[in-house]
Design a protein that fits this description.
This protein is α+β, with helices and mostly antiparallel strands. It has 16 helices and 13 strands. Among the domains are: about 70 residues; about 250 residues, MetI-like fold (Orthogonal Bundle). α9 crosses α11.
């Protein structure tokens, strides 16, 4: 009976279904773990205040936010030199105490049984700063130009008013520095290069020189006005400050210019916390990183990843399709063609770092260096295209993924019935017209399949990008409002490299760990969105040409 059941093949169907189900459960379980660890970081957790029993008998007051917890055995604690009574499991808490500028670290482990008199005072503050991480403490006074303007209960309202004003000023400063002053600096550099180009060509035309000088003087005058305005804004934003008291009684003065957020999580309602949570997630998606990438947002990394994939897709599809068309439609089928196909298939298995080394040597040093000598001699010795950038990174990944597109396109071309080609030729069309108007449109779903596979691989690659263009922090995006708008020579940030940098190169591992989870989840979502867009296009093309295939 069992032997007959195995002969029917049903057990293998069940085994296959079980393996697929287990794989799906593991994948979704991993995604849920990443989401919980990453997205939970933005929730405004309560701040605890308690007395802690130290090993030397002291009981200092600690203030902080519970970041993680683990159950450990007393024997393990005793091995670490911590005396604990009993043999039951003990909970250890990773407490984010903040105030790194005072304590030298913003995390410490505490033992549950040694925590006494736990409280959650509503007037405890969490201060997110541009530098030194969070500060936890009590608000004492608010100052303006060194003079106390509010203290006690009135200090919180005065602080909110000045924080709003400081935020508006900070936004205006950012707009001036990034947009207007940045555009002027870009224009001044363009004029400098143009003048240098005239010198290299021994062109002393006074009309050209006078025109460049006039442009430079206009930009300089505009820069002087903006600089004066910027100085005034910095004077306004630097006049306000607040004094806070830490857990050990020390008072610290913090300028509002260095503050991102101030909030009282213990006094927040559930609705307030939800609003704050979604605002923090929005900041994570739209802001620039800070504090060695352990704070702030990751918008430049999102932008760089998507733009690199788009440029790579534009480059890889034509090369892959042309190669596949030649191998399937024009090349004489024989040993040489089979050898080429084997080589193409083997290219898909070459380690990605090898492509990175090739891209650095050929694209950056050879091709980019010669482009600089021919078209950008005035920029020497600073390289323009002879240095890693987003174009060379996209070309390297296009080279890495082109075998996938070739194989998928060939498979699509092979499935098109021979009768369709013969019918087109019989009606008087040339082979090229048949290929362009009939064969390629019908093979477009297979081409899109190859593109989907290429996107899925390229978006997550990190090793080759470390050699050909990705950086820890890019000062400007590859796309901006300065001519020629798309700057293919610029370096860029990437979500995959950001995960590596934050996870393995961060000076503050505990603070960076939640961002690793959040960025990993975002990378998966970006790849899914790009693939879904390609799949939607493929499905429309498949429906459009299904009637012809039948």
């Amino acid at each position: 009976m069992i032997r007959h059941w195995f002969q029917t093949g049903k057990p293998w169907i069940w085994f296959t279904a079980s393996a697929v189900s287990i794989s799906m459960i593991l994948v979704f379980g991993l995604l849920l773990l990443i989401a919980a660890r990453g997205l939970g970081h933005f929730w405004p957790g309560d701040i605890l205040e308690f007395h802690y029993q130290e090993q030397d008998g002291k009981t200092p007051i600690l203030i902080g936010e519970i970041h993680d917890e683990k159950a450990v055995t007393p024997a393990r604690l005793r091995d670490a030199g911590i005396e604990i009574d009993g043999d039951e499991l003990v909970t250890r808490y990773l407490l984010k105490i903040g105030n790194r500028d005072i304590y030298g670290q913003d995390f410490r482990w505490v033992i549950g049984p040694n925590m006494r008199d736990l409280r959650t005072p509503e007037d405890l503050l969490t201060v997110e700063r541009l530098e030194w991480g969070n500060f936890y403490g009590y608000l004492q006074t608010v100052k303006q130009a060194g003079v106390t303007v509010a203290e006690g209960d009135a200090a919180w309202l005065a602080l909110q008013e000045r924080l709003s004003r400081a935020g508006n000023i900070q936004a205006e400063i950012h707009s001036l520095e990034k947009s207007e002053i940045g555009a002027i600096n870009y224009g001044m550099e363009r004029i400098r290069l143009a003048r240098r180009g005239l010198e290299l060509n021994n062109d002393n035309d006074p009309v050209k020189l006078a025109k460049l000088e006039k442009e430079r003087a206009e930009l300089q005058a505009e820069y002087t006005i903006l600089q004066q305005r910027l100085t005034g804004l910095y004077q306004k934003i630097n006049r306000d400050s607040m004094i806070l008291r830490s857990a050990d009684g020390r008072e610290v003065e913090i300028p509002l210019a260095k503050v991102v957020h101030v909030y009282r999580p213990n006094a927040m309602s559930l609705l307030d916390k939800l609003g704050f949570y979604f605002a923090k997630v929005g900041e994570f998606l739209s802001d620039d990183p800070r504090e060695a990438n352990t704070e702030g947002g990751i918008f430049p990394a999102i932008f760089g990843t998507v733009m690199m994939v788009i440029i790579m897709s534009i480059m890889v599809v034509p090369f892959g399709v042309v190669a596949a068309v030649y191998l399937r439609e024009y090349a004489k089928q024989g040993p040489l063609t089979r050898l080429i196909r084997i080589a193409v298939n083997n290219l898909a298995g070459v380690p990605s770092i090898v492509y990175g080394v090739f891209g650095l040597g050929f694209f950056v040093y050879f091709l980019g260096g010669n482009i600089d000598q021919l078209f950008f001699p005035e920029a020497a010795p600073a390289p323009t295209f002879g240095t890693p950038g987003i174009m060379w990174a996209s070309l390297t990944l296009a080279l890495l993924t082109v075998p996938v597109v070739i194989v998928a396109t060939e498979e699509g071309l092979s499935r098109i019935p021979k009768a369709i080609r013969e019918g087109s030729l019989a009606l008087g069309a040339t082979k090229a017209e048949t290929l362009w108007r009939t064969v390629l449109p019908m093979a477009s779903p297979a081409i899109m399949t190859g593109l989907i596979l290429a996107i899925a691989r390229a978006a997550g690659e990190v090793a080759p990008l470390m050699l050909v263009g990705v950086v820890k922090l890019a000062p400007s995006l590859p796309l901006d409002g300065n001519y020629p708008f798309l700057h293919l020579d610029r370096k860029f940030m990437h979500l995959g490299f950001h995960i590596y940098d934050v996870g393995f190169q961060s000076p503050n591992v505990e603070a960076a760990r939640p961002l690793v989870y959040a960025t990993a989840l975002l990378l998966v979502l970006v790849i899914v969105v790009l693939n879904l867009a390609a799949i939607a296009i493929r499905n429309r093309l498949r429906e459009k040409y299904r009637a012809l295939e039948n």
